Amino acid sequence: MCPPEHFTVEYAINPWMDTTVPVDPALALKQWQMLKDTLTDLGHTVHVLDAVPALPDMVYAANGAFSVDGKVYGARFKYPQRAAEAAAHRQFYVGGPWTFADPEHVNEGEGDFAYVPEAHGGLILAGHGFRTDPAAHTEAQEVLGRPVISLKLVDPAYYHLDVALAALDDRNVTYFPEAFSESSQQVLAQLFPDAVIADRADAEAFALNLVSDGRHVILNHESTALGEKVRAAGYTPVYVELSELKRGGGSIKCAVAELRP
Questions:
Q1: Does any domain span residue 9?
Q2: Cα separation of 178 and 183, whole Å?
Q3: N or C, where is the chain less crowded by C-beta within 10 Å?
Q4: Name one GO molecular function term (predicted).
């Protein structure tokens, strides 16, 4: 995670960003700390990446890389406003027990990649359509040695995979079908017949931008409807208010890069 010490909305690179509405920096930091504390209270270790001045979106740490089995596929951001974030994430990984690969193609880390390790032998789900170059899916497969399923996003409001789909555990997912092309919807239905299906209200509340440890599903405080759906599926929803980070087009998942050694 990376604290929102320099967080602001000073440009608009997704439909949720409104430069006319000021961010409350103190509230953003307080809410981020609540999320960090929630994760540690659930028994998880949180590594903190230092915030860098002039990079207001670094708080969305999930976009900096994608890791599987100790291998890390680095990010290459589409927009120049975020490009320098990739180097900060790279520095974190190359200083640890990871095998890091620099990307040739545009991709935004866990923003457009999700891993379901026990589904069909282990699958990477990968989004494209707005940020990540489809060629990055092939590149990631070569780097990570896991099959990659390409999914086309078609609604600009759901510009990253992680606002349209999330892994709930090692086998199953939740997703909003209308964020995907018809063919991608068919693929998801075949791969995950027991998926928890979200509706538009869930998606608009950024409910799918969640983090799950297989038992606890951490959602933003607006996401009670999806929370009840995942509860019915056997998980325990945990709510955290993250309203300030939503101003930049992200929520729980965007703020958390999951490390898979």
A1: no
A2: 11
A3: C
A4: transferase activity
- C-alpha gyration radius of the chain: 17
Q: What pLDDT sits at residue 62?
A: 98
Over the stretch 106-150, which tens digit does the pLDDT of each residue have?
999 999 999 999 999 999 999 999 999 999 999 999 999 999 999
Distance CA 74, CA 105 (A): 10
Q: Catalytic amino acids?
A: 160, 254
Q: Residues near 70 by Cβ (< 8 Å), separated by ≥ 6? A: 97, 98, 99, 260, 261
Mean pLDDT of 216-233: 98
DSSP three-state, residue 20: coil
Region 193-210: mean pLDDT is 98
Q: Give pTM, 2 decimals.
A: 0.96
Percent of the chain past pLDDT 90, that is, above it, reads 92
- Flag whether pLDDT at 9 surpasses 90: no
CA dist., res. 152 & res. 244, Å (int): 28
Angstrom distance (rounded) from CA 181 to CA 97: 38
Closest of 7, 12, 107, 63 to residue 209, by C-alpha = 63
Query: What is each CA distance from 128 to 107, 180, 185, 208, 251, in whole angstroms?
Result: 9, 10, 14, 17, 20
Query: How far apart, in whole angstroms, are the C-alpha atoms of residue 219 and residue 39?
Result: 12
Query: DSSP secondary-structure letter at 109?
Result: G
Beta strands per DSSP E along 35-101 = 65-68, 71-74, 99-101
Q: Which domain holds residue 202?
A: 25-255
Structure tokens at 239: 């709510």
144 is a domain residue: yes
Number of domains in the chain: 1
